[in-house]
Automatic annotation (TrEMBL):
GO terms for cellular component: plasma membrane. It comes from the Bacteria. InterPro entries: DctM (IPR010656), TRAP_DctM-Dct_fused (IPR011853). It holds the Pfam family DctM. One of its GO terms (molecular function) is transmembrane transporter activity. This is TRAP transporter, 4TM/12TM fusion protein. Part of the tripartite ATP-independent periplasmic (TRAP) transport system. It is a multi-pass membrane protein. Residues 126-557 form the TRAP C4-dicarboxylate transport system permease DctM subunit domain.
Length: 647
């Protein structure tokens, strides 16, 4: 029994707690995690629970568990007991909506006095949860939204309104699927938790280690192989968890020391890992949590979102690996002596079966299964293959730990989508969202490029202060309509804000992935972030590419998609070489400037099928400049090689 409690112990707990309190809260949290897992899997596979009941029960359980953990981790006594008290009350709204659902429907979701008290308590739970889990940014935004809804009658002009009392707010935000329990919460319970659970199970049985060894087998014998291995393994791992920081912590503990051992500086090693880890948010099949939200908001199957994200995601990984390879050549780095085809063969023969759940996920989605049903099937497949070898075998306690770790991972996301749902509910209730979208169009004066720049700036700023999911949700309401009003395809508009909303993983001043990598590498945090931006600049460039060439998102004919891909590869690789300053030999500043100019000319901002004189001239000029610089570099490299052979 003591060994069991020790395994379930929460590592995030404060050191001043008594052993009994830590053990009790840890056990209670694990039981809540198992209950959440059971609820999610039942709802995903059978689909028999009404949306409002499922979402409210899910949030009640997650909020209760989260407040238990946050209370245990707090050093302030009053805050600890406040969190414990709210953890108990958090269960009330879910039970109330379940028990009173028929009555709520019969009275048209109009709030009664008991509803108002429960709504006030729900707001207290939400404010404290968001404050402790995410900080002040979303708390201030929620408070501003509710105050605007209440006191809007005091605001003159077109941005004012008649005002909404507590009863109307309770009806919208708690008793319907338009607020806290809206589409974002539905995505959290139907997709985000389920795929996080699948990723946690795959990590537990060792799939993450398989990815690392596969990457080392493929790239380890190349110059600077550990850097390429880090880029590829982190990108592969990201396909099953979608969290940049989690990727850094998981793979960085292995790849960063290996990179430093062969000659990478601490700053560069951390930057490579941070840039590579952020690839998981944009790579199918799982991507980040916001991708599931996008599918629901646009109203298209998730498989279509994943397919649209494929070319830009692969483009990012390709250019990142080219950048790492160029850096390795510039620094004259060594190879990974323990990697190579032998490691690749051994990994596939001994542990290749651990990739079956991921292959199965792609197969189930291609066969037309819903993402939720496909995820449940892959969970079962993962459990079936885990006993095949002793080192991958897991027991009931391990499964409970997977449930616990999944709940720990999704707590901030659930808090974010609940808060964003409340803000979106107010925006829809008051009509402010449409007015702000119109304001963006007016500021851009109807010019698409100007509006794209404004959108990128707003998306980037929101991404710095908010989690990706919350930032995307608000941008989808406030900004995306401005782009679609100009004729942009919805999937292009939403993918644009999605990319810029998550760029803050590597861009200062937030750069959580870069700072996590710096803590492992021992490099300077800000320098690591700037290096990560230099290596992963494509994440900032590619949204403008698919905004002007939608074929990169599979919007167009096969010929247009192939041509757009070829142009994007040439342009981004050219910019990568220009930024690196090395291509077989050090490149001069004029050569770098010509390469950068050629790259931008090749990806001239017009649709790929455009045949006007300006577009054709720009792209032809870019290709000619590429050929000229390429011949110059090839000639000088050949001359250098001949001199070395004669010497």
């Amino acid at each position: 029994m003591f060994k069991l409690l020790d395994r379930l112990r929460l590592d995030r707990s404060a050191t001043t707690r008594s052993g009994g309190e830590i053990a009790f809260i840890s056990l209670l949290f694990t039981l809540v995690a198992v209950a959440v897992t059971g609820l999610v899997i039942y709802g995903a596979y059978f689909g028999l629970i009404t949306a409002l009941i499922l979402r409210s029960a899910f949030f009640s359980l997650v909020a209760s568990g989260a407040l238990l953990v946050l209370g245990l981790a707090s050093e302030r006594t009053w805050l600890r007991w406040l969190c414990y008290g709210l953890a108990v009350f958090a269960l009330v709204p879910g039970y109330h909506l379940w028990a009173s659902y028929i009555d709520i429907i019969m009275r048209g979701a109009m709030a009664t006095p008991p509803d108002l008290w429960i709504f006030a308590g729900l707001l207290a739970v939400l404010f404290v949860l968001v404050w402790q889990a995410l900080g002040w940014a979303l708390v201030v935004m929620m408070a501003a939204a509710i105050l605007y809804a209440w006191f809007g009658y005091l605001i003159p002009g077109e941005y004012g309104h008649g005002g909404y009392d507590l009863r109307r707010l309770a009806s919208t935000l708690m008793l319907s699927t338009e607020g806290i329990y809206g589409v974002p919460m539905g995505v959290a319970v139907e997709y985000i938790f389920l795929f996080a659970l699948l990723g946690g199970l795959l990590m537990k049985i060792g799939t993450g280690e398989v990815f690392v060894d596969l990457a080392r087998g493929l790239t380890g014998r190349m110059r600077g192989g550990p850097g390429l291995s880090a880029a590829l393994s982190s990108a592969l791992l990201g396909t099953i968890n979608g969290s940049a920081v989690a990727n850094v912590v998981t793979t960085g503990t292995f790849t960063i020391p290996l990179m430093k051992r062969v000659g990478y500086t601490p700053t560069l090693a951390g930057a490579v890992e941070a840039a590579a880890s952020s690839a998981g948010q944009i790579l199918p099949p799982v991507m980040g949590a916001a991708a599931f939200l996008m599918a629901e908001i646009i109203g298209v199957p998730y498989a279509q979102i994943a397919l649209a994200a494929l070319i830009p995601g692969l483009l990012y990984v390709l250019t990142l690996m080219v950048a790492v390879w160029l850096e390795a050549g510039r620094l004259g780095l060594e190879r990974d002596a323990q990697a190579g085809l032998a490691l690749l063969r051994d990994t596939l023969l001994r542990r290749g079966y651990l990739l079956l759940p991921l292959i199965g996920l792609i197969g189930f989605l291609a066969a037309g299964y819903t993402p939720t049903r496909a995820a449940v099937m892959c969970l079962v497949l993962g459990l079936l293959i885990s006993p095949w070898r002793r080192e991958t075998r897991i027991g009931l306690v391990d499964l409970a730990l997977v449930c616990r770790d999944t709940l720990l991972a999704v707590m901030p996301i659930v808090a974010a989508v609940a808060a964003a749902g409340a803000v979106i509910g107010v925006l829809n209730l008051t009509g402010l969202g449409l007015m702000l979208s119109g304001l963006i169009v007016d500021l851009g004066n109807g010019n698409l490029f100007a509006i794209l720049l404004l959108t990128a700036l707003v998306s980037f700023l929101l991404g710095m202060g908010l989690p990706t999911s919350a930032a995307y949700l608000l941008l989808a309401v406030l900004v995306a309509p401005a782009l679609t009003r100009l004729g942009m395809e919805p999937i292009v508009a939403h993918m644009f804000i999605f990319y810029y909303g998550l760029a803050s993983a590597i861009t200062p001043p937030v750069a959580l992935a870069a700072y996590a990598a710096a803590s492992i590498s021992g490099g300077d945090a800000n320098r690591t972030a700037f290096e990560a931006v230099r290596l992963g600049f494509v994440k900032l460039l590619v949204p403008f590419l698919f905004a002007t060439m939608p074929a990169l998102l599979m919007v167009g004919t096969p010929v247009e998609i192939a041509l757009a891909t070829a142009l994007a590869v040439i342009g981004t690789v050219g910019l990568t070489v220009a930024f690196a300053g090395w291509c077989g030999r050090p490149t001069t500043w004029p050569e770098r400037l010509v390469l950068a100019a050629a790259s931008l000319l090749v990806v001239w901002p017009t649709p790929v099928a455009s045949t006007d004189v300006i577009t054709l001239s720009a792209r032809c000029a870019g290709l000619v400049l590429f050929v000229m610089v390429g011949l110059r570099l090839a000639g000088s490299i050949s001359d250098t090689s001949q001199v070395k052979r004669k010497a």
